């Protein structure tokens, strides 16, 4: 977690960036940079309206992205779906709503492709093995479990009831997602998590816990209701 | 346009290498800190309780 002074400093940086790009011609605000900026705002959970509007405008003109940018955009759009404060904003900003409608699914697919290629670390294997040894007989531990809604690969998932390989867990499966955070998830010589891990934890917790908050899910017709699928070994 | 997003329903816990590899420091309050395996068992039990009972 960020300390308050660090957070304030980083939020000021985002605000400064927002002011700097506000008057920038859209042709000079490269979409890859727009994705990086949007991703940074999502990590910090700080969303200046002007910045979001600018990002959406840029993407509406040129959304030709490399996979890295597309994955960053996915995480930003996921925040738009899971962050209650953004819901009203998305509804009143046509460019942002259009971005969500048009790009959410292709970005999710790009993100999920990478998740399917995730490999297990030694620590992850050790935790998974320890879970198998200690959980009651009949329990299941699924490694690299891909969450179909967020696209994240959960390190170890303990479903509420055992699942056949390659099948989806029912929506509302009250299982446990275990994230294993080895050294490369932390800043050097620190107990502070890196941004990519912070945002993953945040998204998974919100996706797992949201029960009654109104969401923008209806804008995403191609997205199935929240569910989990086991990794299909035949998938590339 | 809004609608309720069906809950994924799962709970998220995280295992940090600080706790996994250095249980004597991190788990001194929950075990004797000298046995790696018992410390890791304590860590997992602590993380998964109360929803997933461990033997």
Task: For the structure shown, list the relevant keywords.
heterodimer; A: 236 residues; alpha+beta; five-stranded antiparallel sheet; 6 strands; 52% helix; globular; disordered C terminus; B: 55 residues; 3 helices; 2 strands; disordered N terminus
Describe what you observe in this structure.
The complex is a heterodimer of chains A (236) and B (55). Chain A has helices at residues 4-22, 31-44, 49-61, 67-82, 84-92, 94-116, 122-134, 195-209; strands at 142-147, 153-158, 168-169, 176-181, 214-215, 228-229. Chain A is of the alpha+beta class and 236 residues long. Chain A has a five-stranded antiparallel beta sheet. In chain A, strand 1 (142-147) and strand 2 (153-158) form a beta hairpin. In chain A, helix 3 crosses helix 6 (94-116), helix 4 packs across helix 8 and helix 5 (84-92) packs across helix 6. The radius of gyration of chain A is 19 Å and the shape is globular. Chain B contains three helices and two strands, in the order E-E-H-H-H. The interface between A and B is large, with 52 and 31 residues. Strand 4 (176-181) of chain A pairs parallel with strand 2 of chain B.
Task: Give a quick precis of the structure.
The complex is a heterodimer of chains A (236) and B (55). Chain A has 236 residues and is α+β, with helices and mostly antiparallel strands.
Computed CA radius of gyration of chain A, to the nearest angstrom: 19 Å
Task: Give me the count of strands of chain B.
Answer: 2
Helix content of chain B: 40-55%
- Report how far the terminal alpha carbons of chain B are from each other: 47 Å
SS element count, helices of chain B? 3
Pick out the low-confidence regions of chain A: 210-236
Based on CA inertia axes, which overall geometry of chain B fits?
Answer: elongated
């Amino acid at each position: 977690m960020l300390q308050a002074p660090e957070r304030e400093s980083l939020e000021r940086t985002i605000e400064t960036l927002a002011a700097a790009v506000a008057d920038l011609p859209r042709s000079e605000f490269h979409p890859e940079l727009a994705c990086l900026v949007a991703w940074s705002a999502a990590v910090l959970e700080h969303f200046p309206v002007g910045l979001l509007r600018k990002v959406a405008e840029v993407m509406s003109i040129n959304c030709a992205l490399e996979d890295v940018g597309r994955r960053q955009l996915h995480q930003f759009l996921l925040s738009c779906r899971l962050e209650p404060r953004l819901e009203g904003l998305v509804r009143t900003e046509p460019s942002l709503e259009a971005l969500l409608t048009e790009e959410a699914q292709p970005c999710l697919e790009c993100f999920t492709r990478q998740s399917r290629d995730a490999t297990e670390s030694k620590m992850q294997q050790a935790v998974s093995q320890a879970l198998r040894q200690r959980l009651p007989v009949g329990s299941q531990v699924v490694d690299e479990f891909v969450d179909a809604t967020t696209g994240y690969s959960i390190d170890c998932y303990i479903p509420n009831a055992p699942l056949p390989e390659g099948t989806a867990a029912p929506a509302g499966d009250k299982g446990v997602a275990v994230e294993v955070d080895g050294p490369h998830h932390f800043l050097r010589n620190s107990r502070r998590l890196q941004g990519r891990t912070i945002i993953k934890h945040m998204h998974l917790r919100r996706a797992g816990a949201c029960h009654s908050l109104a969401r923008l899910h209806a804008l995403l017709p191609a997205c199935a209701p929240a569910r989990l699928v086991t990794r299909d070994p035949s998938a590339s | 346009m809004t609608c309720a997003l069906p809950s994924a329903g799962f709970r998220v816990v995280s295992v940090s290498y600080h706790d996994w590899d250095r249980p004597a420091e991190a788990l001194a309050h929950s075990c004797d800190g000298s046995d790696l395996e018992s410390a890791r068992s304590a860590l997992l039990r602590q993380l998964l309780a109360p929803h997933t009972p461990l033997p």
